[in-house]
Design goal:
single chain, about 350 residues, alpha/beta, TIM Barrel, two-stranded antiparallel ribbon, 14 strands, globular
C-alpha cells in the first residue's frame, strides 16, 4: 500500500480516526439565501466520508453582520440546525466523522450582504488588496467599525452557542476559524489589530479573543471536540504580522495547555508574499495532534506523518474534485484538478458531479 503512514489510525481528542487524511474546510456557497444548508450539501459531504475527518465549510456562528458571500451556511437558527442534521446523518451513515468550522467574517463582510449593517473588526482598517462580491457586483471592501471591548463578550457567547448548536446538529465537534483574515485572525495579527487595551498591542492581548472563544467552546462541548485553525503567514484578505513565528509560538503554547483536539496550521501564504517556517515552532510548542495544511502532496504528507512531525494532513482543493481522495492516495491514482470557475457557483456542477474511481 502506498503512503502507508497516512492509513494508520489516530486518536484526535474525542474521536478515533481510521486514517490521517483530513478534508480541510472549503467554502462552496451552496446554502440557500437564508444561510440554511441544502440537500445538495448532504450529498457532497457524504461523497467524501472516507476522509479520516471532514471539517465542514466556514459557517456563520452569529447572525447579523457576519455574511461575506451570500450563500454560506449558518448555525444560529433552528432551521439551520435541522438542515445540518441531514448533512451529519448522511456522513455518519457512511461511517464518516465531521466537524463544523465556526466563523465570523469581520471586515471581510459587506453591508450589502448584511442588511446594511457596517462590518466590524478590531480596528477601522479596510481590506485594500481586493474587492468583494455583492448583490450589486464587485465592490471595494468597506471600512469596518472597531468593536468596543464591551462587545467582545457577546462575540464569545455567540461562538459558544454555535458550538452547542453544532453538537445538536449531529457534528462530532467544531473547528474554531482563526485563519485567513477573518475576525479572530484579524485580532491575532498586528497588521489588522492596531487597537489598545486588553485586546490589542502585545501578542498575548491580540490572542485573547481567540483563546476566550476556544475556552467558551470547550466549556460547551468539551475540549476534546474543539480544534483550532490558524494561518500566521497567509496574506489573504490583506493580512500580515510583524512576527508570525512569535505569534505562532504563543498561540500554540496557550492551546497546548488547554488540551484541545488539535491545532490545524496553514504553513504558507497563498500569494507567496510572506515566507518563513511556522510549523516547526508550532510542533515544538503544541504536543497534541498537529495537522499541517497547504500544498502537501500525498508523498510529502506521508513522510511528515511517518516522522512524527505532523499527526495528520489537511487537503483542500483536491477534495473539491476527488470525492474518493483517500482511495486515490492509497492506490497512487492520479488526482483530478478542480474547475475553479465552479468553486462558488450554484448547483451540482463542479460540486457533486466529480466521479469516484469505482464509478469510472
Amino acid at each position: 500500500m502506498l503512503n502507508a503512514s497516512l492509513f494508520t489510525p489516530v486518536t484526535v481528542g474525542a474521536l478515533a480516526l481510521p486514517n490521517r487524511i483530513v478534508m480541510a474546510s472549503l467554502t462552496r456557497c451552496r446554502a440557500d439565501a437564508a444561510h440554511v444548508p441544502t440537500d445538495l450539501m448532504a450529498e457532497y459531504y457524504a461523497q467524501r466520508a472516507s476522509a479520516g475527518l471532514i471539517v465542514a465549510e466556514a459557517t456563520m456562528a452569529i447572525e447579523g453582520n457576519s455574511a461575506f458571500g451570500g450563500r454560506e451556511p449558518g448555525i444560529y437558527s433552528p432551521a439551520q440546525v435541522a438542515a445540518w442534521k441531514k448533512v451529519t446523518a448522511a456522513v455518519h451513515a457512511k461511517e464518516g466523522r465531521i466537524l463544523l468550522q465556526l466563523w465570523h467574517g469581520g471586515r471581510a463582510c459587506h453591508s450589502l450582504l448584511n442588511g446594511g449593517i457596517q462590518p466590524v473588526a478590531p480596528s477601522p482598517l479596510r481590506i485594500t488588496n481586493d474587492e468583494t462580491h455583492t448583490p450589486e457586483g464587485k465592490k471595494p471592501y468597506e471600512t469596518p467599525r472597531a468593536l468596543r471591548d464591551d462587545e467582545l463578550p457577546g462575540i464569545v457567547a455567540g461562538f459558544q452557542q454555535a458550538a452547542r448548536n453544532a453538537l445538536a446538529a449531529g457534528f462530532d465537534g467544531v473547528e474554531i476559524h482563526g485563519a485567513n483574515g477573518y475576525l479572530l485572525d484579524q485580532f491575532l495579527r498586528d497588521g489588522s489589530n492596531q487597537r489598545s487595551g486588553p485586546y490589542g498591542g502585545s501578542i498575548a492581548n491580540r490572542a485573547r479573543l481567540l483563546l476566550e472563544v476556544v475556552d467558551a467552546a470547550a466549556a460547551a462541548v468539551g475540549a476534546g471536540r474543539v480544534g483550532v485553525r490558524i494561518s500566521p503567514l497567509n496574506s489573504y484578505n490583506d493580512m500580515k504580522d510583524s512576527d508570525p513565528v512569535a505569534l505562532t509560538k504563543h498561540v500554540a503554547t496557550e492551546l497546548n495547555s488547554r488540551g484541545i483536539a488539535y491545532l490545524h496550521i496553514m504553513r504558507s501564504d497563498f500569494f507567496g508574499l510572506q515566507r518563513g517556517d511556522v510549523v516547526t515552532p508550532a510542533r515544538a510548542a503544541f504536543h497534541g495532534v498537529l495537522i499541517g495544511n497547504m500544498g502537501y502532496s500525498p508523498a510529502e504528507a506521508d513522510s511528515a506523518v511517518a516522522s512524527g512531525f505532523l499527526n495528520a494532513v489537511g487537503f483542500g482543493h483536491h477534495y473539491v474534485s476527488n470525492p474518493d481522495l483517500v482511495e486515490r492516495v492509497r492506490s497512487g491514482a492520479t488526482l483530478v484538478e478542480p474547475d475553479a470557475a465552479t468553486f462558488y457557483s450554484p448547483g451540482p456542477l463542479g460540486y457533486t458531479d466529480y466521479s469516484a474511481l469505482a464509478a469510472k
